[in-house]
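Support reply, case 0932

Customer input (verbatim):
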Amino acid sequence: MKRIGILTGGGDAPGLNAVIRAAVKTAINDYGCEVFGIRNGYDGFLEDDGIIPLGLNEVRGILPRGGTVLGAANRGNPYARKVIRDGKEVTIDVSDEIVKGIKKLKMDALLVVGGDGTLHIAHQLAQKGVPVIGLPKTIDNDIGGTEVTFGFDTALNIATDALDRLHTTAESHHRAMVLELMGRDAGFIALQAGVSGGADVILIPEIPFKFESVMNKIRARAEKGSKFSLLAVSEGAKPLGGVQVFSRKGDEVYVPRLGGIGHIVAEYIEGEGFESRVTVLGHLQRGGTPTAFDRMLATRYGAAAVRLAARGGFDRMVALRCGEIVDLPLEEATAVPKRVRPESDAVITARNIGISFGD
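Our regenerated output:
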């Protein structure tokens, strides 16, 4: 193994720089090979300045930094790239150009750090002969095959801190405070932050809710003297028999953008006679310094991915299982997205301590 590349695709997540640093250090210190960074996800192979050398100097000091020094592109799908031709916007497949770029650079391995979409593309490229290894990254924690993705713990801590802060103002003003959280179709952030932050109601995509059930919880608290309530609402939550709320529609390139359910829930509560406010935490969950857990996990993933490349374990993904780093086929990892199981002990525990899921 003489030369490897690394790219960070999809949305940013805390810990990306830690994984880049670990991969570079392991590749240079233990294997003596060159490392190249691909800027802006897969798009870097199509850009004039998209490939940069990564040495020990380039990764010095980046461990605690949020974001990614390589940049990311959550619309960088080489199988569906938007371009202008004859004055019209069209979608084309440039995956063969990506493959040519990798071969031209004589890369012995390409480490792809990303979420479900980015890793699915990595598996497709592997079918074209690209020596790919995946590393699971997303604050949503929705990638199959691994117990946790790096980025999730930081987002969870930020969400929990927000609930702690909202608790005091909710109690002071006797309001129902709704906190809308990220997670897309997986409710892990809302569930775990809701339990950890003392939420009274948790609404997640996996458990459709009834508005009246939510109100029953708020009224019951008011009758017992607690004239405020905290609600942790996942952006992908939806009412029973209803649909998810989107702030932007999607197409073959742009992923639909969820958002707005928090305001709908708050408006309903307000209409029932309880003053309410909404906080949409948004991209605050992605930014800033990663937690020690995310730094450590990302570092382990980065080093393990290089070791896996040295063994020729391509078209596979590193993962965390039972506290140990393992690897599994990318096809298996991306086959079924991970979701909150309504019968899981986390949900049962939340119900045990009196939290309502609105069902």
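We compared this against your earlier run and they match. Two observations from our side: DSSP finds ten helices and 15 strands in the chain. The chain has two domains: 3-150+290-321, 155-285+341-352. Please reopen the case if you see a mismatch on your end.
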